[in-house]
Amino acid sequence: MSSERAIRTEGLGKHYRIGTRERYRTLRDTLAAIVRTPARVARNFAGGAASAGDSGLWALKDVSLDVSVGEVVGIIGHNGAGKSTLLKILSRITQPTEGRAEVRGRVGCLLEVATGFHPELTGRENIFLNGAILGMRKAEISRKFDEIVSFAEVETFLDTPVKHYSSGMYVRLAFAVAAHLEPEILLVDEVLAVGDMKFQKKCLSKTSEVAREGRTVLVVSHNMQAISALCTRAVCLERGRVVDDGQVPRVVAGYLKRLETTDDLITEEDRAPDARFPIGQMKSGYLRFTRIWILNSKGEPSRIIHLREPFEIHATFEVLKPLPAMRLGGSISTPDGVRLSNSHHTDSGFPPLHLEPGTYTVSMRVANFLAPGSYLYGIGAHDLQFAEGLEWLPRGADFTVVPFGEDGTNLHDDWHSGYFYQPTDWSDVKPVVG
Fold first, then answer.
1. What is the helix (H) or strand (E) element at residue 283, kind and residue range?
2. Which CATH class is domain 5-14+54-260?
3. Residue 303 has what DSSP assignment?
4. So where are the chain's domains?
5. DSSP string, 86-108
6. Each residue of 122-174: pLDDT tens digit?
7. Which has fewest Cβ within 10 Å: 72, 180, 271, 413?
8. Beta strand 388-402 with 304-306: parallel, antiparallel or unpaired?
9. At what angle do helices 167-180 and 197-212 cross, to 10 degrees?
10. Between residues 200 and 94, which one has the greater pLDDT?
């Protein structure tokens, strides 16, 4: 690892206003405003900090980091901690509200499906477009072209506009372009949580290869085993701030410990929209979830669940107006929005609920067949009388399944082998006779 710096951030902050839409200004608007209030316009143009009276959310606050050339750094933290926002600023997709970020070198990034792709262009055209954006000559891109196509496995659809691609094809091609066009800095956000198993293993192998070549890699992942296997350093974010930075085992252990003490009150941040979890129109003013928490098999509050250990989800909610026919529902999803399971209280034989205004509690016992990794439990309520959603919190509670039992015994050697542990009765291996 070189002592030369590849990335440096100083006091980095990003503020989002909740419930407002930014107004895009014309050049004439800006010039006229400069004449009227030059100081304020200059401050806004420079991306000055939000005023104390602004309502909104600090996705990042006072983040200062130094990353050396050749380092492989894992960025960890629970959902909403600011991990993806940090990578978007480093890739120049988003401008910071305050502070500064220096990135020295050509950056390749895979942040979200379709980032950097033009939907009307074909896969072939997007490969050359992305290479040009990275500053590569056409000859350089052509030299890597066959390798990119082979890795992405999209030969049949190479001359099809990418707007017709499935999400899996999109991700395969996007990762192949980002990893093969020789960026000096590679930024990867949750790529190890998408695609099929074969593709995930290819991604891990390619990311390791990029790191061995001495290039700088920043990886965001909720999979602690992947972070431990891949990274030489870990940085933990919590509510937009750096709370730990250093050796991977120590930072990961601290993160898992903090998960156990995470506040279980539902905040406005938990209700904030997220593109990974599309939410339809809700019938507001009737019901509001206020608290959600997890109990392990011993009945103790914990966000750490051992492999194969059943657990319970508890929640409280307020009914604000009479609901003559209501149904409660829950789901388990991956942090990138893949829904793994779904259930309703009526599945257990209970009828639809008739509830008057007041505060209620509900509990769900979950049989745990999940593989090691991080997951989100979502909870919601539905008005059956008018077929409308009342409230849906897809990120109600986050929890981590660890690959060992309560006695510390490792029960899962393969660090990533799907989403579920499937109980199976295996017969004895016998020689074939005859």
1. none
2. alpha beta
3. S
4. 5-14+54-260, 268-402
5. HHHHHTTSS--SEEEEEE-S-EE
6. 989 988 887 787 677 888 889 989 988 888 888 888 999 988 887 778 878 88
7. 413
8. parallel
9. 10
10. 94
